[in-house]
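Z., the sequence and structure:
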Amino acid sequence: MSDYFDEISSSQEEFPQAPTPNGSPKETNCFFQLMKGLCYFLLFIVSQVAATYILMIYYVFKLLAARGSNTEMNSSQMTDVAGQIVEEAYNKALANTNGLLCLYGFILVVFLLIFFALHKKNFFEETQFRKFSPRYLPAMVLLTLGFYFFIDAVLSLLPESLMESYTESSSFGSEGSFAVSMIAQALIAPLTEELTFRGLMLSRFDKALPKWIGIAISSLLFGWVHGNPIWFVYASAMGCIFCIAAEYTGSIFSTFLMHCTFNSAGTIFAYFFQETSLKELQCFLIIGISMIIAGFYLLHRTHKAESTLVAVKSQTDK
């Protein structure tokens, strides 16, 4: 794996370097860039909290309208009823996962658009959401589907005692039509998470820390926001794969497509495939590992070929 990070480190032109004031060394700007990355993470959390409370307020008014007015209650009874309504509204808001994903995604993206517009900065350049070479597509497909097969097999082979909390978390708030789930979980969630963890955070960490440390921090925080311990482990691993892909391709548009594919596969399998035999799981495990290895190898080879093409083109232009 060290070859990957060596290869990434040798391609600094893919991620623009932070400007250094008054010609001072880059190290003087490291703390500032690190804080910027963490502030974007805080913005991600605040967007989720804001969406939760906005949705909770909506349910409060909806529950109040359903109950109607009751002038016969005393102040103590009204306080109890108000507490029950607020608690029920909060639980309904948390249970509406698809609604929360859409709402906090809207809040986050609109805020970023306004923020960068006010600072006269290009949204797509600041978030690294830009085109990439289509030659990376085969490696992206192998890595994404390979990781999905691997994780699906590993989770299915874990003891039931370890899977109880994971199953409860997965089923919580999963109500809704297939179309709504696809939009929220396979489009909105990947967009907001890639903008935050790979586009804004990783690119800032790259300017302040060694690449492997930036990848580790971004991946661990990505796993942490998923909550459940099992989700934390595999989301952190997935975040690491996405970070490496973003470094190689120089774009989070590539990881956005990978993330959409992974979540789409999860949503489709959850709706249409309920049970899998042990032999099928073993096949998924072997196929997944093979595809991941092949994907990293192809990603490495493609990046070397792309780097060679860029070098040849630069010499020709001279």
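Residues 30-312 form one domain. The CA atoms of residues 161 and 167 lie 10 Å apart.

Let me know what you think.
H.
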